[in-house]
Amino acid sequence: MGGAIGPIYDLFFQGIGAGLRQAETINARVLGEAMVLAAQKIMRIAKAQPGEKTILDAMQPASEALLAAVDLPLSDALRMACLAAERGAESTRDMLAVKGRARFLKEKSIGYRDAGASSFTLYLEALTDAVIKEEG
Prior knowledge:
Strand content: under 5%
Structural class: mainly alpha
Shape: globular
Largest sheet: none
Distance between the termini: 33 Å
CATH architecture: Alpha Horseshoe
């Protein structure tokens, strides 16, 4: 993995793990709250915020979508989260990178999606596919 995305995903999975550790069952609320914890961990340690052309630009809307879909089956909530993450990742196209390796490109970073936000969208799509298969 290029740049700092490996350590960023490590922070993400640590946060998700902490959020799911005590859960008896995983539903949209539990997963959304765990994702919020993961994003907060990334923001605290990486000193990044949504709007800075990072993975957080996909992660934050995905977690918000999960928390807004607490009455839906997990697969449906995850589908909504995927759409929100995709919109968030696409929104990075018009942003100037101020964090990560892309920050060195300065204005040349405008017009391209953030790789971390795009990879998070792919991760979430794979998770959604696995949940759909499990729910069968």
